[in-house]
From TrEMBL:
Its cofactor is FMN. This is Nitroreductase family protein. Belongs to the nitroreductase family. The keyword Cell inner membrane does not apply. Gene3D superfamilies: NADH Oxidase. Coiled coil: none annotated. Residues 7-164 form the Nitroreductase domain. It comes from Mesorhizobium qingshengii.
């Protein structure tokens, strides 16, 4: 897939088949992620992979309970999370959590760059992805880190679900960019 086509057609996927993603393919996506630029070439990322639709459904329920109990009053997400059918991990068969390995100022952003690479590589391989930022506070809880085998020193930054899409999302239009030409 040509780069500009990938940029124009990649979208968040929120419906997945139960087909598992092979470890070799997940490794290929991570290999693409680590090609991202990083400040001072520190490459401050580590990857935690959680596989299995059933496992992710159970974790989705845990994450949903945590998120509901920690929402700020009046959050527009409250109605969305109240839907019994809503699953935070959308039934995906794999979750790749990109974690910052240090507290350097740019490390979170570097992990985000790696996440974009991973999502574009997955799209090029015919897979769907969705960045699940809603799960980030839950993933940073000590008990959750222990449950998932995430070393306590790591900071989950970019939780991305991956799988075969049940249906391709429609490509949406983009607003014209606001460009300010500096003097």
């Amino acid at each position: 897939m040509e780069l500009m086509e990938a940029l124009r057609t990649r979208r968040a996927v929120r419906t997945y088949t139960d087909e598992q993603i092979e470890n070799d393919l997940i490794h290929e996506l991570i290999d693409a992620a680590i090609l991202a630029p990083s400040a001072m070439n520190l490459q401050p990322w580590s990857f935690v992979v959680v596989s299995g639709s059933a496992r992710l459904r159970a974790l989705s329920d845990e994450a949903k309970r945590y998120t509901i109990s920690n929402l700020p009053e009046g959050s527009p997400l409250a109605g969305h999370l109240a839907d019994k059918e809503f699953k935070i991990f959308h039934g995906a068969p794999a979750l790749i959590i990109i974690c910052a390995t240090n507290d350097e100022r740019q490390s979170d952003e570097d992990c985000c760059l790696a996440g974009q690479n991973l999502m574009l590589a997955a799209h090029a391989r015919g897979l769907g992805t969705c960045w699940i930022g809603l799960s980030r506070p839950w993933l940073n809880e000590t008990t959750v880190k222990k449950e998932l085998g995430i070393p306590l020193a790591l900071k989950p930054v970019a939780p991305i679900i991956v799988g075969k899409a049940r249906a391709a999302p429609t490509v949406t239009s983009r607003n014209e960019p606001r460009i300010i030409w500096g003097h």
